[in-house]
Prior knowledge:
Elements: H1 4-25, H2 29-37, E1 46-52, E2 57-63, E3 68-75, E4 78-91, E5 94-100, E6 109-118, E7 121-125, E8 130-136
Amino acid sequence: MYSIKDKLRNSLFFLFTTTLLVSCHEPESYKVDFYRSQPRDQELPGWWEYYNTDTKEYTYTVFQNDATRWDYSYHDGELWKNSSFDYWYTEGGKIWTYYYIKNWFYGSKEHSISYRIENDVLIMYDDTYEWHHTRCEPKE
């Protein structure tokens, strides 16, 4: 028979595990509110196409006015919307993102990358590389 100590320990373990799993599945609301309240470069919303010369594949990034950013890629000839997304804003020549991952194991992350737009080409860059995305028509 279980003692009161065993029941209490099991209850606390269940409560801790449940809280951990539930809290990891939802974005932290204060971060979402912060990202949504920040300024965004009005040239960014829309579809941007990237051609990866190594894989010979196109991917698409979609910046939306509601502060979300989605990625699309082709799988077996069909365009798929990735299940995870970012919240974004721009400041100081950088795109700041809060990457919301629907996976309790990896968690969410914040990131920034420098950018500029030249003649409908979005150039994102860091110290070692530049990624060129061309503005394109919506694919879905």
